[in-house]
Amino acid sequence: MNKKTIDQVELKGKRVLVRVDFNVPLDEGKVTDDTRIRESLPTIQKIIASGGKCILMSHLGRPKGKRAMEFSLGPAAQRLAELLKQQVIMATECVGADIEKATKRMDAGQVMMLENLRFHPEEEKNDPGFSQQLAKLGDIYVNDAFGSAHRAHASTEGITKFLKPAVAGYLMKKELDYLGRALAEPARPFVAVLGGSKISGKIDVIGNLLGKVDTILIGGGMAYTFFKAMGEEIGNSIVELEKVDLAHSLIKGAASSSTKLVLPADSRVAEELKAGVKTEVRSNRALRENDTAGDIGPEAEGNYAQIIRKAKTVVWNGPMGVFEIGEFAHGTQAVAEALVEATRAGAVTVVGGGDSAAAMKKFGLEDKVSHVSTGGGASLEFLEGKQLPGVVALTDS
Ligand code: ADP
Ligand code: MG
Question: Is 198 marked active-site?
Fold first, then answer.
């Protein structure tokens, strides 16, 4: 990575303003999944241990530019305090003279959580005045919010024009190292597994990976837009008719590239995609009018698992089926388990995408692959070959 990191700056006695991604799910004022908070602990603990003053800022939910206390970062601060086993000062605001004074009164090793950035519409508008106000709260800026790095907002991009050095935290570095290394210098075979409901969200990923990866394994709902393009019967399976031409050109693009594009040999179908339905397996040339495909079939599972197990680099984005429903979770679980086996055999395996990460968690396998990205949208844009504004804005090393 060609950006300065938190290891390359003096933190002692400094007010270290850290953009974290504490956009965590809440239920009745309690954090129900603290993964994102736990992932940011190495950076926070480093600042504490170095005698810095740690000032954290984040967004949470969509308060739409208004102060709405159901989106307060209070519960996240409380969970952080439990994890750190130390007090976290909860600020009532994220900008202003009082907060600025409070940051200056902090002792070395203290931690403060600012209130939700998105209580101010200026945050998402990347307003320079707001960026400047934020910049007053720190002597050093650290971005550890990979999940927000694909957005040019005041706290991720604008602020770096007023507060330098702007460096990457450990989570940001870890994400960029894994995703970056996978794409830049992959050990081969390099396999990408792409699924999810729609092809539209993944077109640019497929486009960017053609010629880079050895094999793309397609699963999930998007497979049926490809089958439609090939003139196959897809019954009532999810399809994007306006993307059929595009699917066609991706198939052609793959044929003239070094990348093999593989579609599932069979599907698990039902009359409806709901729990408790009777499912059947159909070869993909034998789907019927009333079939809705909810998962890849057992032959595809076996084939995909075998290809993944032989890979040395695997990037996975998008579930193979409607894994939220037990009847249609087989394909996704088979792929997840194959990734675990590949990891054991020495492969670098990276999971991106919010739902894919949720699937890994559901199967209890999230610690058994090389890396599960905390940023769904950001990891997708990275795989599309796009520059992330929050990363570009950091100080070069
Ligand atoms: P990610 O968040 O990992 O990038 P996506 O958001 O693209 O993944 O897609 C996830 C969703 O795709 C899941 O909610 C899953 O139920 C849905 N899905 C997968 N296969 C199918 C299918 N055959 N039909 C309809 N929806 C599907
Ligand atoms: Mg998703």
Answer: yes
